[in-house]
Amino acid sequence: MSVGLVVVSHSAQVAEGVVELASQMAPSVRLVAAGGDGSGGVGTSFDLISTALDEADTGDGVAILYDLGSALLTTEMALEMADPDVAERRVIVEAPVVEGAIAAAVAAEGGGGLSAVVAAAREAGGDAGADGGGAGAVGAAGGDAGAVGGGAGAGGADADGSERGAAAGPAATTRTVEIVNPLGLHARPAAELARLVSSSAVPVTVSVEGKSPVDLRSVMSVVRLGTRAGDQVTLEASGDGAEAVLDQVAEAVRAGFGEAGIDAPSGVGGTGGTNDKASPGDAERSLVAGATAGAPTRIDLSATTAGTPASPGLAVGPAHRLGDLPDDLPAPSRVGEPAEERERLSDAVDVAAAELDGGDDLAQAHAAILRDPSLLDAAVADLSDGAAQSWWREVRRLADDLAASDDEVVAARAIDVREAGARVLRHLGVEVSRIDESVSGAVVLADEVGPAEVTELVEQGAVGVALGGGSPTAHAVVVARGLGLPMVIRFPRVDDVDEGAQVVLDGADGTVAIDPPADDVRRARERAEAQDRRTAELREQAVEPVDFQGRSVLVAANVGSVADARAAVANGADGVGLLRTELLVLDRETYPDEDTQRDDLTEILDVLGDRPVVVRVLDAGGDKPVRTLDVTPEHNGFLGIRGLRYLLAHPELLHTQLRAIARASVGHRVSVMAPMVTTVEEAQAFREAVEAAVASLVSDGVEHAAPEAVGIMVEVPAAALTVEEFADVVDFVSVGSNDLAAYLSAADRTEPDLAPLLDPDSSAMKRVLDALTEQAASRGIPVAVCGEMAGDPGLAMSLLARGVWEVSMAPARIPAVKDAIRRYGR
Ligand code: PEP
Ligand code: MG
């Protein structure tokens, strides 16, 4: 085993690139990248870093390189939260990330212990050598005498003989050798030489005409010599064993590192050997092949198929493709006369088809299927076992016929027929589900799942989900995050995975490994179990409230269903900062009436007991299409009539919902909040709507409780920059950082390619948050934050430091955030 290495960067690509480079020189070292915010964006992720640290840790320690300051903060937090015995052997190294990682990797590959690896990384610093001090020291024998470590470019290389360190003493032995490989001592050969000499106590330097000698253990310094085939290099060492080590090194240089017959890639200078068969790119490829040949297996999820990260967490289990709807229905409790059953069936078909009429192309195709008279005719021909049974029998028959077609396009319609048919069943009072206990312990694969299905999957014990489709902000994803179910979306191989194949799914970096080596599965399982244990520990502590710098703050949950509410309680939520009511209408066949809305809310509020809850009124439009309303992409898109704008244009909807909320609030502590507010006038109109709804309940003599407070979401930059102007009309504001970041950058939040523009820690967001919180403080407006950023421990702390009083997040995030506040918020 060797010391491991973790590279933390704000960019996933940077971290992976550094790891790729370093691993070419250290094939048996565990090198793990922890780049990006875990959801495809720029930033750092506590979860990613913690996981990477566990993965890199063989027990011999881990050296951690990082790029920018806030990466340090997140890394420190990850260390703080690890078991102290474990954290002790994980060291953050101040060093340039590329040079440091390479030097550390080489030192680890050479069998160096943690302190040697850390020292190698530190010494690799270009600038670190500029003071002529410790950096680049030749080694034990030379002490601090030899600042030959390269410095910035040739900075350390123009020194005179006195800088040449112990290796250049009077008793020095030298060898002069000609470089034969076209690219000279580039990274891989340099690493090979460094490995060769690192096990020996004898320091060796290498020099080329016109440049000062550099320590052969310093890979980057050797690379900076810029040697090419035909160059003569001088190797120098002194003391016992010098002859032997120089012979070895000289031999390695002469042998050409297996590259002697390869052309240099185009654009690279060099006079060395040519090979007609080799193409310019071959040299690069051979470097990789040479470096990785014989490397031991390790968890290398980057070699697996990448999808898009959706919900963090590691899942290990057999693959289970979510099947079709079931073939058989439960026997009906009562079968009416044929005429009665016929009417029930025909009504159900009409209602189901009408619901689908205004929908997208797929919905309209489903409506057309339902209206196909041959289907209904066949079903009503035999109603002896009731409308539902006969309907489903004919639906299956049609679907099976289609599925048997040789024409793929026709066969693919079978699933549509079943789905459309199932809609009719619901109107006949029969619920069908494709999820049962067979998902228990499995990583589930499907094209798409609905939000309600995610809840079912969790309840049935699925450990992870990979979807062929999906979008990072789809409600199914939001629900998965809330419930802590690891999920990868846009996974391209969803149809290629054999049932029962072992799957390792990493929801944080969006990778799915199918049937990886048994060793990798075992290690991934250990990691997943360690994560589960840690989560359980943190959950236990999370029931306690927390203070931030002596002020009590709320760590609340974002919920949208009863399952979320249960998860909120289980994870120690102090309250609910955002109850998304869209989820209560999205899966419905008809828009719910007041009583239904009240009942749905009551069910959720009863789970939450006396915790304070902020209910957000319907946020239709944008990324939240509500197919039972006339919400269209043309009129109700991100910049259209969405959120409160839609409700003010449909006052009856708002009135009904506000009445339902007030009726459900009896015995609970409920506030209301409007989404997507732009102007003070809109906020004022919302307050008036709340007052009117309460007044109507009073005059109707209906039992209710008026909202404790009336607030708005701040998601539109115009509102964020004028918060103080809302002081007289709102009791609080809650920052929706998801939409705020999207509107600030003019970037569609559902477009994965634009994820880097949605960084909640961008300087634009910081400035807006600073302005917003300052203005709010000046007018005494309490500020909460309920966008995703609130669930990142580091960002949550930065929000609390700005005076925010409540951070609200996916329930599964609460334990880690509370833990961070407890530790760092003193
Ligand atoms: C937000 O925009 O940050 C927010 C919390 O609302 P939603 O994600 O539901 O749009
Ligand atoms: Mg929003």
TrEMBL record:
Compositionally biased residues, Low complexity:
164-173
Gene Ontology MF annotations: metal ion binding; phosphoenolpyruvate-glycerone phosphotransferase activity
Indicate whether Transferase appears among the record's keywords. yes
**EC number(s) on file:** 2.7.1.121
Q: Where is this region: Disordered?
A: 151-173, 260-283, 302-345
- Subunit architecture: Homodimer. The dihydroxyacetone kinase complex is composed of a homodimer of DhaM, a homodimer of DhaK and the subunit DhaL.
Please indicate if the UniProt record lists Magnesium as a keyword.
yes
Q: Where is the HPr domain?
A: 172-260
* Entries under InterPro entries matching the protein: DhaM_N, HPr-like, HPr-like_sf, PEP-util_enz_mobile_dom, PEP-utilizing_PTS_enzyme, PEP_util_C, Phosphohistidine_dom_sf, PTS_EIIA_man-typ
Query: What is the recorded function of this protein according to its Swiss-Prot or TrEMBL entry?
Result: General (non sugar-specific) component of the phosphoenolpyruvate-dependent sugar phosphotransferase system (sugar PTS). This major carbohydrate active-transport system catalyzes the phosphorylation of incoming sugar substrates concomitantly with their translocation across the cell membrane. The phosphoryl group from phosphoenolpyruvate (PEP) is transferred to the phosphoryl carrier protein HPr by enzyme I. Phospho-HPr then transfers it to the PTS EIIA domain. Component of the dihydroxyacetone kinase complex, which is responsible for the phosphoenolpyruvate (PEP)-dependent phosphorylation of dihydroxyacetone. DhaM serves as the phosphoryl donor. Is phosphorylated by phosphoenolpyruvate in an EI- and HPr-dependent reaction, and a phosphorelay system on histidine residues finally leads to phosphoryl transfer to DhaL and dihydroxyacetone.
Q: Name a biological process GO annotation.
A: phosphoenolpyruvate-dependent sugar phosphotransferase system
* Annotated source species: Barrientosiimonas humi
Q: What is this protein called?
A: Phosphocarrier protein HPr
Q: Which CDD domains match?
A: PTS-HPr_like
Known cofactor(s) = Mg(2+)
| One GO cellular component term noted in the UniProt record for this chain | membrane
> What keywords were assigned to this record?
Kinase, Magnesium, Metal-binding, Transferase
> What Pfam families does the annotation carry?
EIIA-man, PEP-utilisers_N, PEP-utilizers, PEP-utilizers_C, PTS-HPr
Q: Where is the PTS EIIA type-4 domain?
A: 2-129
Show the catalytic activity. dihydroxyacetone + phosphoenolpyruvate = dihydroxyacetone phosphate + pyruvate
- Database matches in PANTHER family: PHOSPHOENOLPYRUVATE-PROTEIN PHOSPHOTRANSFERASE
Family, similarity comment: Belongs to the PEP-utilizing enzyme family.
